[in-house]
Design brief:
Structural class: alpha/beta
CATH superfamily of the largest domain: Peptidoglycan recognition protein-like
CATH architecture of the largest domain: 3-Layer(aba) Sandwich
Number of strands: 7
Strand content: 5-15%
Strand order of the largest sheet: 1-2-5-4-6-3-7
Order of helices and strands: EEHHEHEEHEHEHHHHHHHHHHHH
Oligomer: single chain
CATH topology of the largest domain: Lysozyme-like
Number of domains: 3
Length: 493
């Protein structure tokens, strides 16, 4: 049997999601199947209504369990296939989740794919409370976690479910107490409400559905309550991480140390653009130096520049080489020229600082070169994947185009797979005179010489009576600049 093709695939909190959302306007085709589900041929196949009275507001996330399918690798695919083949009766859920990932069948307002824009979360059929305005079907997102195989399978499925639940709670501004079970709604429909939501989530009613069965792990309410709280704690751990902006498995942080070498940067751009100007090759090291100074991955910035400048060919780019603006900064509308900077190092520094504004709320180590720094909501895009506004949970980000972050990541991965040749890795020279050093480094070296931190190898002097035999490599200069921006040379030794 051929694998069911998803319409799109994306990542949510480290979990691979295959989007196969039932299209609006879909109607029952098979009269017998429709009648079995309580419908007639030609009637709408899903409610086709937004949650919470048409607002799309998500008020909770509901956890269910459904059975693992024997001898099936991707259970979510099979449940989705059954849904599309009209074999799931009236059941319509937002996500089917197993150990391999998840399949999305209904809009959840994630904003992570074109078919699921922010504010689009729609009514499902999962909680058994019909069309009650305040019931689960009308107000809650539904997660079917597929369990009942091996312990390893079930733990992986449960972990994927916890990751997705946490992300959805976070995305929709909900708390861990807004995570509920199918049984919660069973109690609500029966008029049984409890001050303690967890108790209501785990209170059995004879003859009524007991779900999520595998997470409960027992028909005993006390045991079920204990196991449900353990699952909630798992979800809370992921939710706390998202709220704190900490690293999440499966996402690429902008904050951190570059993994690519300057040789890889140069070799990559030479392969992509054989006519790349030597000035671009010479400034490749600035991305790593400026990035290290602010604690930002300079290789991410370089990959972004490759995207924004067409691999420094500038064909179709909104900026030109002489602007020293290699990231499209200030190009906020078609036809705009964007910002210009006096030197490449200042342009790259501004780009690094702008990335830092999105990545975290830490203060800048040096003076602000970024003219648009103040316009960024600090820490709103800690991951490369979230630099695109369409993929960002807050709708923030560097660019409006779909898949912006993924495009940068694709380039970054190619850079990291690039083998640097000897010519690309070797620095061109060592520096003796300050005037011959890169302009971005000269103030630091002057400070260090005048402050008595370093001296010449001999007695030679330059035109300013400073050592003319410093014998510094570019790597040494980078380290000095980084330390200087951290304030290490503000006091004389």
């Amino acid at each position: 049997m051929a694998k069911l093709p998803p319409n799109a695939t994306y990542t949510m909190n480290g979990v691979t999601i295959h989007e196969k959302i039932i299209p609006d306007g879909t109607r029952w085709k098979d009269a017998a199947k429709a009648a079995k589900a309580g419908f007639s041929a030609g009637s709408l196949y899903k409610k086709q209504q937004k949650l919470s009275g048409g607002t799309g507001k998500v008020q909770s996330v509901t956890v269910h369990n459904t059975n693992d399918l024997a001898n099936v690798y991707d259970d979510g695919e099979q449940y989705t296939r059954a849904t599309y083949n009209e074999n799931m009766n009236s059941s319509r859920v937002h996500f089917y989740i197993d150990d391999t990932g998840a399949w999305q069948n209904l809009k959840a307002g994630t904003g992570l794919c074109a078919a699921d824009p922010v504010g689009s979360a729609e009514v499902s059929s999962h909680s058994g409370d019909g069309a009650t305005a305040t019931g689960g079907n009308m107000t809650s997102l539904s997660l079917e976690i597929i369990m009942g195989e091996t312990a390893e399978h079930d733990q992986a499925a449960k972990d994927n479910g916890a990751r997705i639940a946490a992300w959805l709670l976070w995305k929709h501004g909900l708390s861990i107490n807004d995570l509920v079970t199918h049984t919660y709604w069973v109690n609500k429909s029966a008029g049984k409400t409890f001050t303690d939501r967890d108790v209501q989530c785990c209170n059995p009613i004879k003859g009524k559905k007991w779900c999520p069965t595998y997470i409960f792990g027992s028909n005993n309410s006390a045991v079920a309550l204990k196991n449900w709280k353990a699952f909630k704690q798992l979800v809370k751990g992921y939710l706390d991480g998202l709220q704190a902006g900490s690293s999440v498995e499966g996402y690429t942080t902008i904050t951190g140390t570059a993994k690519a070498t300057v040789g890889q940067l140069r070799a990559y751009i030479k392969a992509k653009n054989p006519n790349v100007p030597k000035s671009v090759l010479d400034m490749a090291s600035l991305y790593l130096t400026e990035g290290a100074a602010e604690g930002i991955r300079g290789d991410v910035a370089f990959a972004q520049s490759c995207l924004e400048t067409g691999n420094f060919a500038f064909a179709g780019s909104a900026v030109t080489l002489d602007q020293n603006n290699f990231c499209g900064m200030g190009v906020t509308a078609n036809g705009m020229k964007g910002n210009s900077f006096p030197t490449p190092e200042m342009g790259i520094r501004a780009q690094i600082q702008h990335l830092k504004a999105y990545a975290n709320a830490d203060p800048l180590k040096g003076g602000c070169a970024d003219p648009r720094f103040q316009y960024v909501e600090r820490g709103s895009a800690p991951y490369v994947e979230w630099l695109g506004q369409k993929e960002n949970p807050k709708g923030k980000g560097w660019a409006t185009g779909a898949g912006y972050g993924e495009k940068i990541l694709s380039i970054l991965k190619a850079i990291l797979y690039t083998k640097a040749d000897a010519e690309s890795e070797v620095e061109e020279m060592r520096y003796n005179k300050i005037a011959d050093m890169p302009a971005y480094a000269q103030p630091t070296i002057i400070k260090m010489v005048d402050g008595g931190f370093i001296g010449g190898a001999g007695t030679a002097k330059d035109e300013n009576n400073r050592p003319a035999d410093l014998d510094l490599s570019i790597d040494m200069i980078r380290v000095f600049v980084t330390n200087d921006r951290a304030g290490l040379y503000d006091k004389k030794p």
